[in-house]
Every structure is written in C-alpha cells, then in structure tokens.
C-alpha cells in the first residue's frame, strides 16, 4: 500500500524527493497575499471517545477546555496581528472534537477572528447529535454560525451499536432544527460498515432530509491503525457497488454532488472545510496550507498552551514545498470538489495545467475517470470511486502515519512521507 502512494508521488512530482516535514516553524506566517484563504479552528474535547475516530481529541474537562480556549484566542491574535488591517477570507470552520462543548465561548473566538479577518462565505461548526438542543443552537446562531455539520454516522441502532454511539434521535433533532434554522444543515454518515446495504444507506439519507438536513456527507469507513476499532473493512467490489448506488440515488432524487463525499439538496447548502486553495488553522492539530508551505500544530493540549504562553507558534512540523509538490497538493484537494478548472490552476501557478500534467489529463479521460466540457474537467462515477479508493491508500500512508506520530510526540524531529 505504502509502495503505491510512493510510486504515485514520484511520478506526479517527477522526483524521488519525499515530502519532508521538519520540526521548524515560521513565527511570521506568509498569508497576507494568499487569495481564497479559508480558516479552521480545532477544539479537541469530547464527552466520550469513539473507538473508530482518528481525530485529535481528549476527554472534556471544564478547566482544561477553558485554558485551551484562552490559548486559542491568543494564537488567533498572534497570527492575525501580523497583517495590517483586515484580510478577506472565504469561510471559517470549527471542527473537533466536539466544539459545541465550548458553545458559550464560540462568540468570543469569532470576535477574535473578526478583529483580523473578514469572513465572506459563512461560519460552520461540527456538532455531535447530543448538541442539537434549541438552547445550544440559539447560542451558536447568535454567535454568527451559519452552517452545521452533525455527526450522525447512522440512524440505525445496529450500526450505532457497532460504532459505540448513541444519541441520534430523529424526532428531537427534527424539533430542534425546525425551531432554530440554519443556512446549511449537513449530516455525516459513515458507509461501508460490516454488512451495510444500499437499503440501509438510503434509509439514512432519507431520514437525514426528513429530520431537517439540506446536505449530507457520506464518508467511507477508514480503519486507522492507531484507533481501537475492530470493525473489518468492506471489500472493494461491495464498496464500489454501494457508492455507485447511493450516488445515483442522491442524484436522481434531486441532489447535486457538491464534493466527492457530499450531496446538497438545496443549491445554497455547502459544507466543506477542505476544498480551499489556502487555509490557516488554529488550535491543536490544525493544519495550515499556504503558497509555499504546509504546517501542522502540535496534538498535545498542554504543549500547545505552553507554546502559546511563550508567544511562540504551536507548529509541530513544517513542509516546504517544491513547485510540483505544491501542484499535487492543489490538484488533490481541488479534485475533491469533483472538478478541476485549468484556468484556476493557471491563475494560481502561472503555468498552464496541460503543460504540467497534459499526459495525466489525457490518461484520466481515456480511462474514463474524467470528462472535459468547456475546458473544465469533471469526475465521472468511475473516477469518483477510484478517487475514494486512492484516498484510502493516501489516508493510511500519509495521514495515518503523521497523526500516529503526532499523537505520540508533541514535537517530533522530522517525518518523511
Ligand atoms: C470530527 S468527526 C465528528 C464530529 C462530532 N464530534 C461527532 O462525533 O459527531 C467528523 C466526521 O468524521 C467522520 N469519521 C470519523 N471517523 C471516521 C473513520 N474512521 N472513517 C470514516 N469517517 C470517519 C464521521 O462521519 C464524523 O462525523
Ligand atoms: S467521533 Fe466525534 S465524539 Fe467521537 S471521539 Fe471523534 S470527535 Fe469525539
């Protein structure tokens, strides 16, 4: 598996040079001239820990959460005050963990952000179903949140049990969501669970729209090596059939595919913290992607706070891109939106996409992975499956290894991927 991603990396970057992440950081982050900049804030606290979850999280304690939010606000000012005036950004997303455990302080965080940034495309937050109460939704709406992403995983008891989850009661969700409306209400599901059928998945999607969602995200189950999950992975053929069936169902029932994993019932509904050209991340484990670098913050809450107390950036690892490496990052995350517009690529890099990756584009069309219309490439059903399939390798070879290391060491020396 590691071999496949390594060969692909060498081919696409036209180099044997690995992605080299080093224990170094820039105190000044060069984001002032980045267009299409998105923001992300990580809040790593949960009431209980789910066995399948790979994200950076820890058990909630009021005291630790409060110290963490104080540090988070200081990190925002540390980065934000590097530029004069206010920078226009696309969106702001809160992820976790369970960020609503700090619901009462979300406004304070947004206010800190708005001292340095002007948000033009709304503010999203990830929620656990237990957070969906009229009181919490009111607090979030008052704070300026416009998009919700609710981690349902499955409405069905048998799968909730398999995942060790409870708390997705349809009637109470529906009641709370109808009392406090939001522009986007997205619900997350995990698919390719043991013995899961198209009927199961279709029932979940129907239930989501019935409960008040206007957007769904369907994530294929990924078995991270460092989680305690004992769920077996579904076979390739079965997974493909399931993905094709649910994709067709969503499209036939009037949804549009807004990204590889997401379907929108209403045009204005969108929730994606990933498809941005550049982003700045704040908090533990938050990643930042700029023109020439990728950096990721420490996963340790205590080390994070300590760094911020010293007025230092909490970066654990930094990757300085070669131009081709940056192009691959760009294309990988842009393809996530299921379309690549060569004009955007050229505007970003100053070279035509065809000149850099003409052969790959021809191959993608020949193999039936992509179609070209009016100069824009869009992914076919087959392309979407193989993107999923490859993404699984990528996740296990890159993200799994990096997060696995960062969970063990707050500031590792270096990492080669
Ligand atoms: C940060 S998590 C969830 C937010 C919230 N804390 C919750 O539990 O509902 C974001 C989403 O990632 C997805 N996810 C988590 N672990 C996964 C795994 N092992 N494979 C695939 N998707 C996963 C889930 O759908 C989850 O809702
Ligand atoms: S799935 Fe959500 S609640 Fe469960 S551990 Fe992960 S972030 Fe926390």
Structural commentary:
With 417 residues, this protein is an alpha/beta fold. The protein folds into 2 domains: 1-17 and 323-408, Orthogonal Bundle (Arc Repressor Mutant, subunit A); 28-264, TIM Barrel, CATH 3.20.20. Helices cover 41% and strands 22% of the residues. It contains 13 helices and 21 strands. The chain has helices spanning 2-13, 62-80, 103-114, 134-143, 157-163, 170-179, 198-211, 236-252, 301-309, 323-335, 342-349, 353-366, 381-408, and strands spanning 20-22, 37-43, 45-46, 58-59, 87-89, 92-96, 117-119, 123-127, 147-153, 184-191, 215-220, 256-259, 262-264, 278-282, 287-289, 293-297, 315-320, 339-340, 370-373, 376-379, 414-416. The strands form 5 sheets. It has a 9-stranded mixed beta sheet with strand order 12-13-11-10-9-8-6-2-14. A 5-stranded antiparallel beta sheet has the order 15-16-17-1-21, with no helix packed on it. Helix 6 packs parallel to helix 7 (198-211) and helix 8 (236-252) packs across helix 13. The structure holds S-adenosylmethionine (SAM) and iron/sulfur cluster.
